[in-house]
Amino acid sequence: MQAIILVGGEGTRLRPLTTTTPKPLLPIVEVAFLERQLDWLASYGIKDVVLSLGYLPDAFVAHFPNNRFGDINLRYVVEPSPLGTAGAIRFAVDELGIQQRCVVCNGDVLTSLNLAEMENFHVEHKADATISLTWVDDPSAFGVVDTSSDGRVVEFIEKPKREQASTQWINSGTYILEPAAFSAIPAGVPVSIERETFPTLLAAAAPLYALATKGYWLDIGTPEKYRQAHFDVLEGVMGKPPVMGAQEVELCCWQNGSVSVDPTAKVSPPSFLGAEVGISARVVIDGSTIGTKSSLGPDTQVVRSVLHDQVTVGTSVNISDSIIGSGAIIGDGASVIDDSIIGAGAKIAPGATMKGARLAPGSRAD
Ligand code: GDD
Ligand code: MG
């Protein structure tokens, strides 16, 4: 099989991180999310991946020199304007002349889904399209998929009201599609696979199947879920170290390369210290990722947060439940709390309080 990954979305819920970096290239513990997804596809022998681009396409091309990732050959298609999740597939298929079965993935789903099992199911059922399903507590933010006992889809409703959801099994954003499914998508116009193509296939009684899957699954598309992905990766949900070569210095506390940690500092799991990180006296790090070359001044506390690389944090700073972009500078005595997101290179003045804030890249808060 070859793969198409949908990575054209603007990642609006993760702004201002996604103002400068497209969502699939945001790091999850120092490794771009998309690399984790490509690793997963490679583990099923997939060697040909098409990236369906729209938003900030140059960032992807720059990220993968020679259009390679390990054994994977990458090809790119760039939509002139957003064509939606199905329009993007049709565009890619037409541009590249694809006439074979494809696995299609949303570009923001971290999963340990068994793709080989899914393909077997798809082939056995002679499906035109197979959707993988995962079970969630609240299905209202997802595509809700009801099936008969043999796995045939009987209903697909995108983002219903909670009380209207007939099941908690949702579309987990990985599909196997045959060329017959591509033909069901009109060319040259925006089309949503969730709101249009799947309902159209259903109405035509086409063989549309879904497979309930177990294993790890997370859509990283909201700030809370993006932070959650860090905890999960540090706790080993993907079955390997968070970064190749990183050392587990105590259970679920990782270091990558040389770090400088004052003996009075306390680091609690699940946490990660990137290479050349500097941690001063009496710092408390709890459930947090500190990116490469970041430094934390004395008496600072970082709880349930993610700091990208080269973040400079002063003395007696309080950071909790927040995300700090690359190269940001946080002044002495500042607080960054309650789901704040600080854009890359932004500066927070000493003593300032950022509570649930969104600070644009390169800007300054007093
Ligand atoms: N190329 C391209 N063009 N890609 C797009 C476009 C587009 O116009 N619009 C969205 N995408 C990509 C996004 O980049 C993302 O990787 C993927 O399509 C899904 O878009 P999201 O914006 O993340 O959708 P969602 O999370 O609200 O819902 C989708 O995912 C859920 C599972 O996480 C739906 O597929 C739901 O049915 C599903 O349950
Ligand atoms: Mg999503």
Protein model, in words:
The mean pLDDT is 96. The protein has 8 helices and 35 strands. The N and C termini lie far apart (53 Å). The chain has an 8-stranded mixed β-sheet with strand order 5-6-4-1-7-12-9-13, with helices on both faces. An 8-stranded mixed β-sheet has the order 15-16-19-22-25-28-31-34. It has a 7-stranded parallel β-sheet with strand order 17-20-23-26-29-32-35, with no helix packed on it. A hairpin with a 2-residue loop joins strand 2 (27-28) and strand 3 (31-32). It is 20% helix and 33% strand. The longest helix has 13 residues, at 84-96. The protein is α/β, with parallel strands linked by helices and 366 residues long. Guanosine-5'-diphosphate-alpha-D-mannose (GDD) binds at residues 6-9, 52, 54, 79, 82-85, 88, 106-109, 142-143, 158, 170-173, 194, 219, 221.
Total number of helices: 8
Instruction: Give the C-alpha Rg.
Output: 22 Å
Helix amount, in percent?
10-25%
Strand composition percent: 25-35%
Structural class: alpha/beta
Question: Sheet bearing the most strands, described?
Answer: 8 strands, mixed
**Global morphology:** elongated
The hetero molecules present are: guanosine-5'-diphosphate-alpha-D-mannose, magnesium ion
Order of strands, main sheet, comes to 5-6-4-1-7-12-9-13
First-last Cα distance: 53 Å
- Compute the average pLDDT: 96
Contiguous uncertain segments of 5+ residues: none
The count of strands amounts to 35
